[in-house]
Structures are given as C-alpha cells and as structure tokens.
Amino acid sequence: MSGWLSALATALDPLCGPVGIFTLLAGDGLVSCGASGWGDEIAFGVKVTVTLAIATLPIGLLLGFLIALAAQSEDKLLRAAVGIYTTIFRGLPELLTLFIVYYGLQLLIQSILGWMGIEQRIEINAFLAGMIALAVVFSSYASEVLLSAFRAIPRGQYEAGDALGLHRSRTMALVILPQLIRIALPGLGNLWMILLKDTAYVSIIGLSDIVRQTSVAARVSKEAFFFYFLACLLYLALAIISSFGLSFIERWSRRGEVRR
C-alpha cells in the first residue's frame, strides 16, 4: 500500500513528476531532476515548506480560538494570562521565538532528565520545533482576529440560542461558529500568507525547506542569483495558489448572502 502511495505521489509531483515543471522545462540544466541537477532537492524543499505550513495551521487556529474565548472570560486572571501570552509572542521576532523553542526545549528536557538522574543529550526535531514556534506566533495574531470577529456578533444571538433551549456549546457550534468563520476569514487568510513566508525561518535550524535547499544549491553551484530567484518564484507560486484557494473558500462561506 505504501509503495502504491509513493508511486502516486511521484506521478503527481508538480515539479519532478512525469509532467512536472522541472521535468518538462529544465532539460539537463541546474534544476533538472535526477543526479545531474538540483530539481529533486528543491522539490523536496517545497514539500517540506507546504507540509510545515499545513501542519501548523490547525494547531495555530485551535490555540487562537481558545485564547479568543479566554479573552472574553469573566475570570480576570485568565484574561491577564492570555493578554501576556499575546503580548509576548506578538512582540518577539519570529526567529527569536524559534530559537527559544528549539534550544530552550532541549535545555528544559535535559534539565528535567538530569534532575531525574538521567544523563542523556536531547535534540528536538527541527520540524516539530518549527511547527511549535510558528503555531504560537500564529495563534497570538489569530486570537486577535477571532476576538474581533466574536465582538462583531451581536450578543442577542447567544440569548436567542438560550431561548430556544440550546446548550451554549450547541449555540456556539450551530449559530456562532459559521458567522465567526465568515467574519474572520479575510484576516485569517492574511495570516496564512504570513505563515507561509515565515516557514523560511526553519532553514536556520537545519530543516530542508525551500530556502535551505536553494541555499545549498547556490553555494555548491556558484549560481546564487539563479537559485534565490527560483526560491522567490516558488514562494510567489505558493502565494498565488493560496490566493485562489482563499477566494474560493470566501465565496463558499458567503454563499447564503449571494442567494439573498
């Protein structure tokens, strides 16, 4: 089964598949696929970048949603805690947050193990560290977008749910969330674009994304301008594809308004 899936993924690869861009256009050039070029390595970098962004998105959205809910809590301590969280991670540079997660978690885990009498060197997976760091930054911004969307929904809608005998959780799921998604979607779409670009930071900790793979190719081949320009084109292509996807989702979310 895994071999069949691997063959399917290779066949559908938009860069180095049988009808991939590098396969059709690169020939025997620098980005040809195979041993003669860097096409396979760069295609792998694109997969890592897209996978990291897609894996980070649901975690960041869930954290942002929970933080937005907590920001509306009647508990002053809870509101203060989420306020500190958003202030810290919106104020720190993303690269510094990545370093804190990548190196700080290693030191923390090693300290805990040392306290338990276990002497072992721990190295955090670069993909996991990048996902955590990008998720906390994304969630700090997403929480503000979602909080603004919550405040745009009239309180009477909650009261209407109570009048109908709906539990608050069902009111949230059936009444509030559909409106929340529609209102917050433009802001969340912008944050997705930022997240896609911020994945470039993980190249600093050794993850083989677009930037790292093109940097290695540029250093070895001495064709820096070509490969960095290629990296620019790849990020622009991902942004354009994302724009089409976000436009489709936005039209779908507003389908009820169109009928009216």
TrEMBL record:
Alphabetized Gene3D superfamilies for the sequence: MetI-like
UniProt entry keywords in alphabetical sequence: Cell inner membrane, Cell membrane, Membrane, Transmembrane, Transmembrane helix, Transport
SUPFAM superfamilies: MetI-like (SSF161098)
CDD domains: TM_PBP2 (cd06261)
Bilayer topology: Multi-pass membrane protein
Compartment(s) of residence: Cell inner membrane; Cell membrane
GO MF annotations in UniProt: transmembrane transporter activity
GO cellular component, one term: ATP-binding cassette (ABC) transporter complex
Record's keyword annotation contains Cell division: no
PANTHER family: ARGININE ABC TRANSPORTER PERMEASE PROTEIN ARTQ, CATIONIC AMINO ACID TRANSPORTER, MEMBRANE COMPONENT
Identification of the protein by name: ABC transporter, membrane spanning protein (Amino acid)
Originating species: Pseudorhizobium banfieldiae
